[in-house]
Amino acid sequence: MSGTEGAGPDGPGNLFSGLLPQAGRQVFPAGHQLFSAGDPADHLYYLCDGAVKLFGAEAAGTENVLHVLRAGDLVGLSALVDGRAYALGAEVMETATVLLLRRVDLLHWLHRHPAAVMQALSRLGERYRMMAEDLLALKVLTPRQRLCRYLVQQLGPEPDTGPAGLVLTERHAVIAARVGLTPENLSRAFSRLRMDGVVLHHRRVMVAEVGGLRRLAAGIGEEPPDCADFRD
């Protein structure tokens, strides 16, 4: 399944800022499906706020969330690439305000701004790399490691060691989707991390030793023997 349905245009001064005033603004509630895999890719969605998940379905009907997009992201990049069909489905996870761009308008705009084509390809490549890393994590990391990886991403590059704290800005269901767990199993995963000095209280996470968390995220260290009972 392709993982190139979303890309981030880097905020207000993004690549398509000159085109956005032509877009229609719409608000969609949680649970609304923007498109399904296989639908004609004739629109591109600029996400102003909220969250949208990209997902594929296995033959047995199991849904696999491959990526979660946030404000500033583009949803439906197949419309930009070939216009044939969306490779993934897209569903709103948090009430989302989007700007709806027609593919024909987008192509006309790029034709008038040829220098933007290479920039667009660069952005596509960057997003593809990020999504490929997320997909690889879903395949090779345990749920515990994926949750640690998510927390490390939220902490950023600093600090390297010592205690730290962070406030989770995403809803429980969104975090669960991003790390490939059900909301119930995410709660259990957080509980298991207490033994590693990671404590969740409401939306605040306290980390006793950041270096240890980074090692866990990198897969360094032994997996607890009872970890398998909350695998996805």
TrEMBL record:
| SMART domains in the cross-refs | cNMP
Which UniProt keywords are listed?
DNA-binding, Transcription, Transcription regulation
Locate the HTH crp-type domain: which residues?
Answer: 141-211
**GO molecular function annotation:** DNA binding; DNA-binding transcription factor activity
Q: Which residues form the Cyclic nucleotide-binding domain?
A: 28-127
Q: Name one GO cellular component term.
A: cytosol
**Name used for this protein in its record:** CRP/FNR family transcriptional activator FtrB
